[in-house]
Write a structure and sequence with these properties.
The protein contains ten helices and 13 strands. The chain is α+β, with helices and mostly antiparallel strands.
Length: 295
Amino acid sequence: MTLEDKPIFDKYFRARDYQSSHFNFTNLFMWRNFYRLGWCEKDGVIYLKAHWETDEFALQPLCSEEKMPEAIGVWIEHFKSLGKPLIFYGIEEWVAEILRNYSAAKFNVVEDRDNFDYVYTSEDLIGLRGKKYHSKKNHLNNFLKNYPEAQYVSITPDNITACKLNVNSWYKVRSKDLPDDPFIPAERDAVIEALNNFAALQLKGGAVVVDKRIIAFSFGEQLNSDTAVVHVEKADPEINGAYTFINREFVAHEWSNLTFINREEDMGIAGLRQAKESYRPIKMIKKYNAEMEMA
């Protein structure tokens, strides 16, 4: 997968109102090396295959609902030829239903709670109104009191290098705490990949500047007709309220025209789940895994 492939993928993503944060070119491109992603296009379908450690698995085919049963059949034959079980990861609910009722093979379909997307209204994230956001409002007010000079700026070629330098310094700290976690350097590389190709990926981003130093930044893009997806949000962990401030300001400045904000999954990380739930999602985008029973 290269940047030159983006128009092909965008054509398919525009053909359906995908709800899952995984179904956009940026997410696939950022993580293509870590998951050793491969793809091909055939007869109006994009087929995507990936790897996790020693496992090889399929992603949901990108195609119309009418073509999906046939596309599943192509995957069945492919994995049979490899002598491996056909496994799908991260499929949407409508595809899970097709697999449950698939006549030519039996699939065990299970919810993948750790990868459900959290979706909020942009109005809630900007306004932080009501008792349910009382603690968030306090965090924000404390931040504004302690850092009255804090400014929100859009990410541009002039400040993108500073964002990359901050990514490197923050991940060095995390790597010291968890030296054996392969996801930490992989996430760092994915974020840098997106920042290096920011314009080509057609991303929108914002940063928070305090004393001429970027202390937080975030970026994302429009996911479907009424939803933006936030791919990355990073802030200096030593500055209380920095995450709350960039969360609100990014949506207020870049996405107030859209109804919903998809802030992706928590990956089963307890602290991240608590943080995402504390913003009171209006809905969750369910994802499923499915494995075909071998005859």
